[in-house]
Please model this.
Amino acid sequence: MSEKQIIDRLTNAFAGGGVDSDGRLHSRLAALAEKQGLLDVSYRTVDSPLGLLLLAATGEGLVRVAFSCEDHDAVLARLASDISPRILRTPRRLDEAAHELDEYFAGKRRAFSVPVDLQLAHGFRRSVLEHLRRIPYGVTQSYADVARAAGNPSAVRAAASACSHNPVPLVVPCHRVVRSDGTTGEYRGGPDAKRTLLAMEAAA
Amino acid sequence: MTAWALMTRSLDAAVRPFEGIVAEHGPMVMRVCRALLGPADAADAWSETFLSALEAYPKLRPGSSIRGWLVTIAHRKAIDHLRGAARRPQPAGDLPEIPATDPAESSMDDELRAALDALPAKQRGAVIYRYLADLSYAEVGDLLESSATAARRSAADGIASLRKRFSKGAKR
Model:
């Protein structure tokens, strides 16, 4: 047997029918990491009428929802530098959020109950997001309304910017804020996604 | 690396989520764990290796060899296992069970496994770390507490010994 044959046989011998093809080893790693407080961010993807959504959560709650038009790998890399690189794909920890989103898109849910972590927004932006959470299903407000409600009536542009940078769209309903002239305004998921959501809520 | 560069690590935009490390290196770490410990303990050692790596990951210096770092952890976990030091019971609860070993897999190439286990420790380590983990001889030398030259010689001797054994057609 040649040296190359021995080395090939060696590498084949321990590759053993793939590694963790059913994902159980990975799930176990994630569960152990969570128990030992080493899992800072977990994530999963979920299908939706707006395309594949990325959901990411800390121990505090849902911290990021990303649309398919955002590069999910780039979003995760950003979370790694903004929050912690201790990130694992952990569907279980996000089952509830995924389920609530399913219900929302099916027209069976009007408010989200999953906890939300707004640590990616600071200062006035955070005040805006906290106000957005109180805008009911099917209701729209203008950016001026939102600026006023968040405590700074003259900061209409800043309010618009806070909405368009909302780290947790859908669950924090920035899509319910529209321009005073009735046009939709910017949205992380694109203007079509925003129109779809507004139409869906108006029809319910 | 300067102290300042270490302090400003958080400014480094390219921090990679740990999930990517598991996805890229998981199979390699499993090969090494299987070769070091056999199929029964490999799953445990794999989990322990990645759990330790996850804990230390935020402090890992940028530019470090991820592969070398993971294999070093796996090497230590394997030593712990062999000493029985790592045999503390896992916390009970709702943890997924360790996957049962696939019988087809555990019977696979027992002959080679036995031949590898029969090598002297340095040769066995050098063969595993050079050919299953794809480390450089310098890294293999660090792991085995010898020089790169000695590691190269150990790996060559180990391969030669395996060749000799299988070239004779001497089935056990």
Remarks:
- Chain A is about 40% helix and 10% strand.
- The radius of gyration of chain A is 21 Å.
